[in-house]
Prior knowledge:
Layout: H1 7-21, E1 23-24, E2 32-41, H2 42-46, E3 55-66, E4 70-84, E5 91-107, E6 117-121, E7 127-128, H3 130-140, H4 148-152, H5 158-166, H6 180-190
Parallel strand pairs: 5-6
Antiparallel strand pairs: 1-7, 2-3, 3-4, 4-5
Amino acid sequence: MHPPLEAGTQTLSVEMMKLKEFNIPFSGLKLGKHEFVYEIENAFFESFDYQEFNGASIQVKAILEKMSTMMELKIKAKGTVNVDCDLTGEPYDQPISSDLHLVVKFGEEYNDEDDEILIIPHGEYQINVAQYIYEMLVLAVPQKRVHPGIADGTLKSDILEKLEELQPKEKKEPTDKTDPRWDDLKKLLTDK
Length: 192
């Protein structure tokens, strides 16, 4: 029988899972470009305690270019996340794509304050890209999530029908009457 897991132990194992899979051990790589491919599913976001998506299917390609004094990391992502529509609550697949370019330099201490430059200590042998992938994917999702079926009229939803029913009906009657003040102003423009 196993002892019960403490809260800290579970978090540590999630952290280890995140670190292990997304580590790029650059010290053993030759100079030049190296490609790493990741299949991102909803479990990835859940490991960051991010619960906004119903599901995810995203392919991420990381290309690390190792040079003698620095490295360049280019990350490209393309796929879909399943989210709920802000208007109707209906789930739908939202296509997303994103790019990230990061310069990795060596320095005295770790510094990731700059969005485009990562400084890692001399003697470091790997970098973990999980946080960068997580942030770029979350930011790739539009702020306003609207089901594509609303725009093209294919979505049939009780909520949508109720919204249309409650929408104020405007009665526009064509009028030939104009405001006499505007007529006087128009005269000033044409009487030159």
